[in-house]
Write a structure and sequence with these properties.
single chain; 248 residues; globular; disordered N terminus
């Protein structure tokens, strides 16, 4: 989940598109390795959106007020719409959405199993921190995608409103009971480590995606740039922790 000011900063710093990033899907997908990398990317995103829908629906059950429950239900609906956009694109390029998602189901399910929140506040922090890290990661990749795929990816990464909602609720909880902040800060740090490890594992297991990141099919990336990419993601995480009123 991304706040509007972060989105503005990212767009301002983005370089002018070149190579594949300046091509449309019809042109870029002629490269079978690039085609495979995009199918992997869309499959990972689609399963992530489906999981986000399920998680927000579950979080709604823990909501302390009817208003909070309705707000989370609305956000869950938005995530499912994103899921549908991604599966529609996969179908349009003659790929099976189920087959594209399948390689990512187990690692993402395992991540969510290992980071199951124990209460309402931990659920809010997980969605805000964990989803934001994933969004940052996918935005970094999107800058090197063809114009059609980039447009789709950026549209499904739009903030559904959960970011501001989580910040408001978590800050209010900390103001009401300051000691909650320490527990949530530890929880957020754990989420950061698990999310980065999970992203690295997913990429390492998929040859097409890993090749995209190190420059085989996407202009501008090399191993040093991958390191800088994760540094930027970490820096953005620190800013979000501050927005929540937590120490990074």
């Amino acid at each position: 989940m991304e706040t509007p000011d972060n989105a503005t900063e990212a767009s301002a710093e983005a370089p002018a598109p070149t190579g594949i990033a300046a091509q449309d899907w019809a042109t870029a997908s002629a490269d079978p390795q690039y085609h495979a990398a995009v199918v992997d990317l869309l499959g990972a995103l689609a399963y992530g959106e489906l999981a986000a829908f399920e998680r927000l629906a579950e979080d709604a059950k823990l909501a302390p007020t009817l208003g909070d429950k309705a707000a989370l239900a609305k956000m869950a609906s938005a995530e499912f719409h994103h899921f549908e956009q991604l599966t529609d694109r996969l179908t349009a390029v003659e790929e099976s959405p189920t087959a594209a998602m399948e390689p990512f189901a187990r690692p993402l399910d395992e991540f969510h199993r290992q980071t199951a929140p124990s209460d309402w506040l931990e659920g809010l922090v997980k969605a805000y921190v964990g989803d934001s890290i994933a969004s940052d990661f996918y935005r970094e990749i999107a800058a090197r995608l063809d114009t059609d795929t980039r447009s789709l990816v950026l549209s499904v990464l739009d903030d559904t409103g959960h970011g501001n909602f989580a910040v408001e609720k978590v800050r209010a909880a900390i103001e009401a009971e300051p000691r909650v902040g320490g527990r949530l800060a530890l929880w957020a740090r754990r989420l950061m480590g698990e999310a980065l490890s999970q992203a690295q594992r997913v990429v390492a297991d998929r040859d097409a995606l890993s090749t995209m990141l190190v420059g085989g099919v996407a202009d501008g990336f090399d191993l040093a740039e991958v390191g800088r990419m994760f540094s930027r993601i970490t820096e953005a995480h620190t800013k979000r922790m501050a927005a929540l009123g937590l120490a990074a």
